[in-house]
């Protein structure tokens, strides 16, 4: 007999392997068995909608979440925030961000990443400043996203500051994602020699 745990496991497994249509299909089949989704289940389904950039289904499932009476936590809030950001719904994403009870590094990084990805570099930089003002320490993902924002508007000085902070925290090492983000940022700012230096390292 399948229950909520077995269905949730299948939905999450599909998401982990980026089989987002299958994840949503499993969620629908679970609902047909009159099983009520829980917090973890909703978070996985929002991840699937984000992966597909499927705003219509995402909004429908969000309405279902509202009717369920489930109180959100950081995991659910971050998943919902990511879904709206990936779908380009900046204002809605901002509303969700405000509602997240305790904004952690994932919350801030998701917001910064969304702004950077959709070409809102200044908003990404403002969020980065606010994140630091709130004493939330950036991680590798945050730094990679903010470097992308700096590169897109040729903000080399801020990019250098962030590079120095990355070095100070000892995050670069053999981190290919951060290394690539730095090469990209310097190249986009026209600092080809510096980009080549980082590439060589």
Low-confidence stretches: none
Element order: H for helix, E for strand: HHHHHHHHHHHH
Q: What's the end-to-end separation, in Å?
A: 55 Å
Mean pLDDT: 93
What fraction, in percent, of the residue positions are helical?
over 70%
Question: In words, what does this structure look like?
Answer:
With 201 residues, the chain is mostly helical. It contains 12 helices and no strands. α3 (39-52) runs antiparallel to α4 (55-68), α5 packs parallel to α7 and α8 packs antiparallel against α9. The longest helix has 14 residues, at 39-52. The N and C termini lie far apart (55 Å).
Short description:
The chain is mainly alpha-helical and 201 residues long.
Layout: helices, strands, pairs:
Layout: H1 4-16, H2 20-32, H3 39-52, H4 55-68, H5 74-86, H6 90-99, H7 105-117, H8 121-133, H9 140-152, H10 156-168, H11 176-188, H12 192-200
Helix pairs in contact: 1-2, 1-3, 2-3, 3-4, 3-5, 5-6, 5-7, 6-7, 7-8, 7-9, 8-9, 9-10, 9-11, 11-12
Which key terms come to mind for this protein?
mainly alpha, 201 residues, elongated, 12 helices
